[in-house]
Structure formats: structure tokens, C-alpha cells
Design brief:
By secondary structure, the protein is of the alpha+beta class. Helix content is 28%, strand content 27%. A hairpin with a 3-residue loop joins β4 and β5.
């Protein structure tokens, strides 16, 4: 079948699974198709999964049966996003907000032109001239060579080589006041392959904070497995992203789990993974709770 038809069948499957019902008129409205096309889609779906739905003529709606087995694998994250914002990618149509499922508000949206300029540079391995406002030094002109965009849970950042500091750094996408293409040659030491923190992966072992009374609740929250030490969540994450994740999840990274268990439900069991030769393996780890209490996030 065509990609478009697969999407329509997936929509039928999704509605039956998560809403328990769907009507031909809803399918036609959502995809802008005609009566004949909608009829063909439901006919094909019934041929592929005859036990999944039943038509009730009095309501002209199809209903999920007790024998329902989904035709498509609906990823949990994608399904929740679809429930909150509407089924579809939102590229060609506006997302429709749900009245019964809400996602956390995203307060910080980088302008689409900013994202487009950055992603073109990443794709073409090119540099960009930018004006950037930082908390520490204010507004400065820079030339950066971006190689990745990162969501740290609160802000979208771009990972890039900064020719002003001669190092790889993270820049908050909303703090660019201007961006334009730069035609200078990008050298090998400015590309992703040379970014040590990006290419270094850390094996982290997150466990329920020892100060908590009921560890099982946190184990369920993070779908932890078990070993001889109890519930544990093992992650393999880039060093360049570790500090952001540890702060976002409020992970206590102190050696003796000294932070409040009420505020920090997780503890990093193998805190030694963050250091080598008594030095932090990545600059951003200074923002991790308990790793360095004297440091403030930038």
C-alpha cells in the first residue's frame, strides 16, 4: 500500500486503540479525502484485521472489540504526543490541542528561521556568523561551526565549535539575535569528530535515593531493572549531555548522597564515572546537583 494509505490505516488503528471508536467522517475530515476513499480504507482495514472493529449502524461508527490486536506498533511517547497535540506530524497542518490529555508547556521556542539556519549549516558542515547574548559577557559577534541540536529538557541548544573561545560549546538557541552563513573553510578540528565531550559516552547507574522510604515508587517511575544492589537504571549518555540530564532529573551526584531525598529522588551510584584523574570529564557536569555545590548554572 502507499505511504498515504498506511497513514490512514494507522489513524484508524490509533483511534480504536486509544479512543475505542472511530467514524468514517472523522477519517475523511482529518486527511481531506472523499467518501469513496474513506470506504476503501475501512474495507481494507477490516480485511487485514476483521476482529478488531465492529460497525454499529445506529451511530455509523466503528467500535473496538475485545479481540482487538493493533495492526501498528504505537510508540508510547509518540502516542502521548498525538493524544495531546493531535495525530500527525504538524508540518502541513496545525496541531489540534486535546481537551483530555495535556503535555507540559514548552515556554521556550527558538524562531523557525534560527533553527533553519543552524540545521542547514549542520547538514552542509558550514560555519555561521552570529550575534549571541550570554549571561556572563552580554552580546558578542562570533563565528560558530554547529554540528548538533540538543534538547536539554528546558531549552534547545546547539553544540558548536566557537572560534572566539577556540573550543566546543553549547549555545541556547533563543539567545541568537542574528545569524547568517559564513563562507570560510571549516577545518577538521572544528567538526563533530573532534568534539571530545560529544564523542565520549558515560555509563551512568541511577538508583532510588537511599533517603527515600519507598524505593519501589521511583523504580516504577523510571522502569528500573534489578541487580544485587536493588533497582537501577543504566544509561549510556554523551558526556556533553550528562550534566543537563542529571540536573533535569534532579539526580544527587554527591558521593555520600547528602542532598535532600524529597527534592532528589535519584542518586548516581557510580559517581566516579564523572571524573578521571581527579578532573571532571566534561565542563557541563558542574551543573549536576551535588557534583560541585559552589558552581552555578550558566
Amino acid at each position: 500500500m502507499t505511504y498515504a494509505q498506511r497513514e490512514r490505516l494507522a489513524y484508524i488503528d490509533f483511534c480504536l486503540e486509544y479512543f475505542g471508536e472511530v467514524a468514517r467522517s472523522e477519517l475523511m475530515t482529518h486527511f481531506g479525502t472523499g467518501l469513496a476513499s474513506g470506504s476503501r480504507d475501512f474495507t481494507l482495514y477490516r480485511e487485514l484485521a476483521p476482529k478488531n472493529l465492529i460497525l454499529r449502524h445506529e451511530t455509523k461508527r466503528y467500535y473496538r472489540t475485545e479481540d482487538f490486536e493493533p495492526l501498528f506498533q504505537h510508540n508510547g511517547d509518540v502516542a502521548l504526543a498525538a493524544l495531546a497535540k493531535g495525530f500527525g506530524d504538524g508540518i502541513s497542518t496545525e496541531l489540534q490541542l486535546s481537551q483530555s490529555c495535556e503535555d507540559a508547556p514548552s515556554l521556550i521556542h527558538p524562531p523557525s528561521k534560527t533553527v533553519a539556519t543552524i540545521t542547514r549549516a549542520i547538514r552542509q558542515e558550514a560555519a555561521i556568523q552570529v550575534e549571541y547574548v550570554s549571561l556572563s559577557s552580554g552580546c558578542h559577534q562570533r563565528v560558530i561551526v554547529p554540528h548538533a541540536i540538543i534538547n536539554n529538557g528546558q531549552r534547545w541548544r546547539v553544540r558548536a565549535y566557537d572560534r572566539r573561545s577556540c573550543s566546543f560549546r553549547d549555545f541556547v538557541c533563543t539567545r541568537f539575535t542574528s545569524l547568517k552563513a559564513d563562507t570560510s573553510v571549516v577545518e577538521a578540528h572544528e567538526k563533530q569528530a573532534a568534539d571530545t565531550d560529544w564523542n565520549l559516552f558515560l555509563g551512568l547507574e541511577l538508583v532510588p535515593h537511599p533517603g527515600l522510604v519507598n524505593h519501589e515508587a521511583v523504580a516504577l517511575d523510571f522502569k528500573m531493572s534489578r541487580d544485587d544492589g536493588g533497582p537501577v537504571l543504566r544509561l549510556n549518555i554523551r558526556a556533553a549531555r550528562a550534566g543537563y540530564l542529571l540536573r533535569y532529573w534532579h539526580v544527587d551526584t554527591s558521593c555520600n548522597h547528602s542532598l535532600s531525598a524529597e527534592e532528589h529522588h535519584l542518586w548516581l551510584r557510580n559517581v566516579e564515572a564523572l571524573c578521571r584523574d581527579n578532573e571532571s570529564v566534561a565542563a557541563n557536569l558542574m551543573i549536576a546537583p551535588g557534583f560541585n555545590k559552589e558552581s552555578e548554572p550558566t
